[in-house]
Specification:
Length: 350
């Protein structure tokens, strides 16, 4: 199906895929308002873009961006979630419509989350898919960067994916995931040809540009899956792989795993290796009483959002579907597996 994308005005990005839109607004001082059944982004006395709410799946506001009560009412009426990010891309909070009335699905989710065997059944496909997609990314890069170390890492990840499929306990499954992460990020460090330092995954907060891009991308993908889970009637805070904790969107963290290598890691490597983003696009930040971190500058953040929006919305191959559609399909498959008690498959690149 035809895909359309449009950028209109500074600091606004709109991506369409099958009439499903995510709107990013990051111009300081902008206002998200309403006109009839349309959302309007206003700034500097003018209008940047106007979007029909029926085409809008989610809205993300970055930094000092305002939203009117009328726009909020329209979003809630059409079950469109709204996420608030800091200017540097850190998720501050979300406003979402009332939870879906599909209480039966949530009851099955809570029951499954309380049984170790059910958690294992539902978590195995996620880890298997994450490891398989990690191996797939390395395979794609081997065409340009042949070498024994990369080949060995790919084979190791593929083997761990098979082990995850047969894991007999959550502890064994987490062991496969942990071993895969060590192998994978060593390989990703070797694929980083940008000159930007990256010695491995670091977070809370990210200390270098490469990790800052990973954290931002993971947060955006997590927010999308959180909204999809809520819309489907699932509780995004009760998961099967990640432990449930206060304020922790465990199910969304589960669901994002297969999309980390397929979407965010692939995008990050392209942006840095092709010098689309360089060291000059980042700035150091040390909040009062906090640890130093690295964040994107405002103009670089706008460019990053453009590339992320394109990566998640474009069809992966001619006649195919986008990663955003794959996210929705994965959520649907999980919901059906919960209701049926059967097996399911997470997203695997082919």
């Amino acid at each position: 199906m035809e895909q359309r994308s449009r950028e209109s005005g500074k600091g606004v990005r709109k991506e369409d895929a099958m009439a499903v839109t995510t709107v990013f607004v990051c111009q300081p001082g902008a206002v998200l308002a309403r006109r009839s059944r349309r959302l309007v982004v206003q700034a500097d006395g003018g209008e940047l873009v106007e979007i029909p709410v029926r085409e809008t799946a989610a809205v993300a506001l970055f930094g000092p961006v305002q939203v009117t009560a009328q726009a909020l009412a329209l979003l809630f009426r059409h079950r469109v979630p709204l996420a608030f990010f800091s200017r540097q891309g850190r998720l501050r909070g979300r406003l979402a419509p009332a939870l879906s009335s599909h209480a039966g699905l949530r009851l099955e989710q809570y029951r499954a989350a309380g049984e170790a065997a059910c958690c294992l059944r539902l978590a195995r496909p996620l880890v298997e898919a994450k490891l398989a997609n990690s191996a797939r990314l390395l395979a794609a890069y081997r065409r340009n960067y042949p070498g024994e170390a990369l080949a060995a890492a790919q084979q190791r990840l593929a083997g761990l994916a098979r082990q995850a499929r047969e894991a007999a306990s959550l502890a064994e499954l987490l062991g496969c995931e942990g071993a895969g992460a060590a192998v994978y990020f060593n390989a990703v460090a070797a694929l980083n040809r940008s000159g930007l330092a990256f010695a491995g995954r670091r977070m809370h907060p990210p200390p270098d540009p490469f990790n800052a891009l990973l954290s931002l991308g993971y947060t955006l993908a997590l927010t999308e899956l959180l909204g999809l889970a809520e819309a489907r009637g699932l509780d995004p805070y009760v998961g099967f792989l990640h432990r449930t904790g206060y304020g922790r969107p465990s199910l969304a963290l589960d669901l994002v795993e297969p999309f980390r290598p397929a979407l965010v890691d692939r995008l990050t490597l392209r942006l840095v290796n092709e010098r689309i983003l360089t060291a000059a696009d980042f700035q150091a930040r040390t909040p009062a009483g906090g640890r130093p971190s690295v964040v994107l500058k405002p103009e670089a953040l706008r460019r990053y959002l453009e590339h992320y929006a394109h990566a998640v919305a474009r069809p992966r191959r001619p006649g195919g579907v986008s990663l955003r559609e794959e996210m929705a399909r994965q959520v649907d498959r999980l919901a059906r597996a919960l209701m049926s008690g059967g097996e399911w498959t997470a997203f695997v690149e082919h």
